[in-house]
Amino acid sequence: KVCAFPQPDASTLRAHTQTPSSAMAFLLPLLLLTPSLASPPCLQRTRGSPAGLRRRLGRMSHAVHAVNDPKAGAVSVDFKPSSGRFGSEDWPKSGTEYISEEAMEKAKAGNKQEKMKLAKDGALTGFQEVHEFAAAIREGKTTWEELDIDDADVRLKWAGLFHRRKRTPGRFMMRLKVPNGVVTSEQMRFFAKSVGKYPVEVGVIDITTRQNIQLRGLELQDATDIIDGLYERDLSNVQSGMDNVRNLVGNPIAGLDPHEMIDTRPLCKSINDMITNSGKGNPAMTNLPRKFNIAVSGSRDDFAHTTINDIGLCPCPNKETGEMGFNVIVGGYFSIKRVMESIPMDLWVKPEDATDFCEVMLEVFRDNGDRGDRQKARLIWLIEKWGLDKFRDTVKEAFDAKFPSKAGALISSQPEPWKGTTWAKRDLLGVHEQKQDGLSFVGVNVPVGRILPDEANAIADLADRYSGGEIRLTVEQNLIFVNVKNEDVPKLLAEPFLNTGKYFVPGSAIDKPLTRGLVSCTGAQFCGIALIETKNRALELSKRLEEKLKLPRPVRIHWTGCPNSCGQAQIADIGLMGAPARVEKEVNGKIKKVAVEGVNIFLGGRVGEDPFLGDIHKKGVPADFDSLIPVMTEILKEKFDAEDA
C-alpha cells in the first residue's frame, strides 16, 4: 500500500486569471516475449501495419494474462523495472480499471487522448511494453519507424519518453522524477553516461523549471538500461508525462535554510512514492483527466512557486497549538487558453496527513474531472464547475471515508502570524551560510539549465570534493552545492570549472544582472511545438544587453517558445513568448509584409510571498536582434533603471 499527500497555504494569495468506483471488468492482454517470439502484437503498426514487417516478424506466440490475476508474474522483492509485468503485486490492474463509472462514461465520449487510453492503457506501454520495444529494436526485429504511432509518440510518455519526431526523428527526451530536486554525484554521472554515447548536439542534460532532469537525444533501444539504472540509483522515469503528476517541487535549501519553517524533502519523497509506488509505477494514478502539478513550500520565500501549481502546500502554524502545517492553495496553471494563479482552498493539513490528503485530491480529480476539451480539463475547471465549497466538502468527506482514523483532521486554513509584514524572496545564487555552524551552500548559475555530459561529470567531481556528493536543483534551472565547509568555499570558488565563462557563482548582488536570472524552455531546437529557438537566443541577447547597459539590480528574464509557457514567461520581470511577427520586406520588387519569428513580451511578473502574473506589454516583436535589442533596451531603461554602459 502506498502512502499519502501534502498541501500549502493560501491566505495572502489572490486569484489572477487571464484568457491569452466501480472498476471496468475487462482483461488487458500482457504480451510476454518468449524465445520463439519474433515480436509481440504491440509492436505491430496498427495504422497501415506493413506486410513486410509481418513477414520479418514471422510466426508469433504470446501469452494473455488477466491484469487482475494475482498469480500472474508476481514481482520479487528485488524489483527491476524491466522485469515487471501487469497482473503482478505491483501492477495488479490497468490504470483504466481504477477510474469511476462516471469517469469511464466521460472517457468513452471524450477527446482523442481519452479514447486512445481506452484502446490501450498508457501504463501498460510506459511500464512494460517500453522494454519489449527496446528489446525488439536491439534484436533487429523492428525499428522505431514501425511502432504504432500512438505508442511511439503518446503512450511512451507514461515512461517519461517524449519522441521528438519533428526535430530529431527516432530520438527521445526522457523526463525523470527528482523529488525536491535532490541529486547525488553518482546520479549526475549516470546522466552523463546515459546521454554521452550520443552526438553532442543532441545528447544533453537539461535542468527544468520543476527542479527536474531531462535526458535528451536518447534512442529507444537503450531505454531499458537507463530505466533500470535510474531505479538502482533511487530515481525513476515513470508517470512523468501525459495525464500524470509531474515532478514534486520543494525548497531547494531544505534542511539547510536558517529561515525554513519545515523541511520539504520528506514530504516531496512521500508524495512522490505514493504517486509512483516508490518509483515502480502506480497504475491507480496513471489515468488522470490531465496533467497535475504539486509543490511544497518550506519558507516565506516560496522557492517552490506553489502559486502556479494545481496543489500548493504553504507552511503556516496552527494558531492554537503552534504546530507547523500547511495551508492549501489550488488551481494554478499555465496553458495556451488560460493562465491562473492559485486560489485559497480554506484548508489546513498536518505534515503527517499531507500525503493522504494529496492522494484523495488526485482521486477526486481522477474520478470527476472533465475528459472532453483538454483545454478545460485541469483541476481549476472542476473547482469552478462545482464551486469551491462543494469541492472542498467533497475532498473532506472523501478523506474522512478513506482514512477514518484521521476523520476531522482537515480543518480551516490558519491565519499567518506574519501577516502585515513583508519578506523579500532571497537569491539562491552565491555563497550563503547554512543553519549548521561552519557550513555554507553555494548557488551556481547553469546558463539556461543546459548541461553537457563532460560538464555533468565535472559537477559530480566538485560535489564529491566539496558537498558530500550532494547537489540541489532549483526552479530557476540552477544548481546548489550544499554543506560546503566555510574554509573550503574559497577553493570551490577558485575551481577552473566555475571560472571558464559559462558556469559561474556571482561575485556580487548585481554581477551579471541579466544572465543570472535567465530561464528558458527547450525551444525549437528540440521541441516541435515551439515557435522559436529560445536557449541560445536567450543567452546571446542577455550577453549583448549586459555589454550595452548598466543595471542597478538583477532582472529576471524568462523565455518560452510557445503559449504553453513551459518557460513560465508570466512570472518573470520580463517574459518573452514565441509568437508570430511580421516585417516589411521587398519581394519581387514590391514591399510586402512577411511572417518571421517573433515574441510577445510580458512585464510585471512576481514570485515569492506577493506573487503576480505579468501582462502582455508588446505583441509580435520580431525575434532578430536588430529588432529585439532596441525594444529590450527601452524596457530596461524605462522600467528597471538601466543606463548606458
General form: globular
Taking pLDDT < 50 over at least 5 consecutive residues as the criterion, the unreliable ranges are: 1-77
Gap from first CA to last CA: 61 Å
The amount of beta strand, in percent, is: 15-25%
Helix content: 25-40%
**Rg over alpha carbons:** 25 Å
**What structural class do you assign from the helix and strand content?**
alpha+beta
Question: Order of strands in the sheet with the most strands?
Answer: 2-3-6-5-15
Q: State the helix count.
A: 15
Q: What is the residue-mean pLDDT, rounded to a whole number?
A: 89
The description of the largest β-sheet is:
5 strands, antiparallel
> What is the β-strand count?
24
Tell me what you see in this structure.
- The protein is α+β, with helices and mostly antiparallel strands and 645 residues long.
- Helix content is 26%, strand content 19%.
- The protein is built from 15 helices and 24 strands.
- The chain has helices at 51-57, 101-108, 112-119, 122-138, 149-153, 185-196, 223-232, 265-276, 354-368, 379-386, 388-402, 453-466, 489-493, 535-548, 625-640, and strands at residues 17-18, 161-163, 171-175, 182-184, 205-207, 213-219, 294-296, 311-317, 324-330, 333-334, 339-340, 343-349, 430-433, 439-444, 450-451, 470-473, 479-485, 519-520, 549-550, 557-560, 574-587, 590-603, 615-622, 643-644.
- The chain has a five-stranded antiparallel beta sheet.
- A hairpin with a 6-residue loop joins strand 8 (311-317) and strand 9 (324-330).
- The longest helix has 17 residues, at 122-138.
- It starts with 16 loop residues before the first strand and ends with a strand.
- Residues 1-77 have low confidence and may be disordered.
